[in-house]
Amino acid sequence: MLIVQKYGGTSVANTERISNVAKRVASYRDKGNDVIVVVSAMAGETDRLLNLAYSINKLPDEREVDVLISTGEQVTSALLAITLKTMGYDAISLLGFQVKIITDSSYTKARISRIESENIFAELKKGKVVVVPGFQGIDEQGNITTLGRGGSDTSAVALAAALKADMCEIYTDVDGVYTTDPNICEKARKIERISYEEMLEMASLGAKVLQIRSVEFAMRYNVPIHVKSSFTYGDGTIVCKEDSSMEQMKITGITYNKNEAKITINRVPDRPGTASQVFSALSDENIVVDIIVQNVSKDNYTDITFTVAKADARKAYSIMEEVAKKLGAEKVILDENIAKVSIVGLGMRSHAGVASKMFSILAKEGINIEAITTSEIKISCVIEAKYGELAVRALHSGFGLDAEEVREEK
Ligand code: ADP
Ligand code: ASP
Ligand code: MG
């Protein structure tokens, strides 16, 4: 079998853990499998590198940021290859430019456009374990790019799709996908199988256990993903096409995202073309906007509020200050102190009253809702950051998702 395994930051946080990863890889090799291992940077390393850049400039040059932050994964790939070789297993690390993982040129959030398979297959043929740093690629001009935070998941799934692997395993610090983040809700339940659609929503709404683009890739190329723990043995969660064995719940999961910031433009003249000017200025800079709320116009002025990823907040804020000046708006306010809580479930389509139940659960906890957005299978509310975890727990039990027994600490 051809197996792609990805190990996240906590799983390779130090040389002892890298050695545990190597043992697991070796056990698959011993059974005669071909193994490609994708590794993240050591836990905390990407943040450390980013903070170095931010200490010099609040808006550092993004091409250089990618050169900087791609190094974390280079370190762990080399260390894993060294460990495997020390254990007597032949291994080689191939960096993004050596595999040839080609992306577009959107630094810090590049998209993979193609992956060449020749170099990897040539090394596998020689009997080597191939270790590939996650998160990184190169654009057509050979510049180093990175795939957005959590992007090693996407590297793994994209490799599995490109190489037509038989299995794609994502090893992390929890033993599967849960009804909500098991680190904030001790009554979270492990989901055995979850559809791509629901996982896509959960990921895009903050369940960082899988990066959203990895789920998009998996869905497009029909690659089942097995999410497992690198610290324990046993089955995790299978993310795959919807099938009849999946639980048909009204609500499948609750998510929570504190990585967004809210920007409000006060007193914008309310005339045709304003919204277009605001949002095209952001899209020109490749900034993705999430929730948008525009107030009812009073004396021909209105307020526009929207949310963006925290990583883009400062850039978006400075763009908005320019736009506000041009439009004659009063002021721009940046609020980084927000959280977005969401409920997700395919069953929501056929059940009435889900939204009102969500609002009343939040109200009962005294939590004010600052913005709301809905789609067919999800409802999200923006609230003050300090209530985020409380809201998750209240919604989890309010919608009947609590496990009967509290999980044992692992
Ligand atoms: P890695 O470094 O292995 O990529 P991440 O920290 O990116 O790991 O993702 C794993 C984390 O995702 C878990 O520790 C958990 O706190 C978080 N998480 C959030 N939502 C969920 C969920 N619904 N199920 C499981 N884990 C979740
Ligand atoms: N090291 C990168 C990050 O921290 C990529 C990853 O771990 O998936 O976002
Ligand atoms: Mg991750």
Descriptive overview:
By secondary structure, the protein is α/β, with parallel strands linked by helices. It has 2 domains: 2-173, Carbamate kinase (3-Layer(aba) Sandwich); 244-410, VC0802-like. The protein is 35% helix and 26% strand. It has 13 helices and 20 strands. It has helices at residues 15-30, 45-56, 62-69, 71-86, 96-99, 118-125, 152-162, 196-204, 212-221, 274-284, 310-327, 354-364, 388-398; strands spanning 2-7, 34-39, 91-93, 101-103, 112-115, 129-133, 136-138, 144-146, 167-172, 193-195, 225-229, 237-240, 253-257, 260-269, 289-294, 301-309, 331-335, 338-344, 371-375, 378-384. An 8-stranded mixed β-sheet has the order 3-6-2-1-9-11-12-10, sandwiched between helices. It has a 4-stranded antiparallel β-sheet with strand order 13-18-20-19, with helices on both faces. It has a 4-stranded antiparallel β-sheet with strand order 15-16-14-17, covered by helices on one side. The protein is globular. The relative contact order is 0.11. The model has no long low-confidence stretch (mean pLDDT 94).
